[in-house]
Specification:
two-stranded antiparallel ribbon, 10 strands, elongated
C-alpha cells in the first residue's frame, strides 16, 4: 500500500480525536498534582512554619474559640483573598499585653493587663505548619507569596479570623 492510500483512510474526525488525546495527555503532564510531586522530588517543596498574629478580635469566649481551633487540628488559610488550602495547627500562643513596672530597687515586675478580664478580646499567635515552595524570592504557599506582614484569614468550623503573618520559618 502506498502513502497516498494510507492518508485517504484518515478523516477529519480521526485528526480531531488525535488532537483531543494529545490535549488530554498534556493536561495530565502539567497537572498541579504532578507538578507538586516533581517539586517535592527535587526538594523545592519544604515544610514551613508560619506564625499568624490575630489581635483585638471580639469573642464571647476567647478561650473556647482557641480550644475549638486546637481540637480540630487544622485550619483553612486564605492569603490575600485567595484560598490556599488547609494547614496543620501546631499551637496557639497568648500574646496579650503585660504591664511592666520598674521597682525602686531596680527589679522589674510584670503583671497581666487588668483590663483583659473586662474585655473579651482575642489576642493570639496561631502557629501553623504546611508544605510550600521555597525559592530565591521567598516562600510560596498555594501560588501566593507569603512574607511577614501579609494579611491572611484563618477559617474553621466556628470562626473566621483576620490576621497578619508575623513569622515564617523553613523547616
Amino acid at each position: 500500500m502506498d502513502l497516498g492510500n494510507r492518508l485517504r483512510g484518515f478523516s477529519a474526525l480521526d485528526a480531531t480525536a488525535g488532537l483531543i488525546a494529545l490535549g488530554a495527555l498534556g493536561g495530565v503532564l502539567w497537572s498541579p498534582k504532578l507538578t507538586n510531586a516533581l517539586a517535592k522530588a527535587n526538594g523545592s517543596v519544604k515544610s514551613v512554619q508560619v506564625m499568624v498574629d490575630v489581635r483585638r478580635v471580639s469573642a464571647a469566649d476567647p478561650e473556647a474559640l482557641v480550644q475549638d481551633a486546637l481540637a480540630s487540628g487544622r485550619t483553612s488559610i486564605i492569603i490575600r483573598n485567595q484560598p490556599a488550602g488547609s494547614v496543620k495547627l501546631i499551637r496557639v500562643d497568648d500574646i496579650n499585653r503585660v504591664l511592666v513596672q520598674v521597682q525602686p530597687d531596680g527589679s522589674v515586675v510584670t503583671a497581666p493587663d487588668p483590663n483583659r478580664a473586662s474585655v473579651n478580646d482575642l489576642n493570639a499567635r496561631f502557629v501553623l505548619e504546611g508544605d510550600a515552595t521555597v525559592s530565591k524570592s521567598g516562600v510560596v504557599l498555594a501560588g501566593t507569596k507569603l512574607k511577614v506582614g501579609t494579611p491572611v484569614e484563618l477559617e474553621g468550623a466556628l470562626y473566621r479570623l483576620n490576621g497578619t503573618v508575623s513569622g515564617v520559618k523553613v523547616q
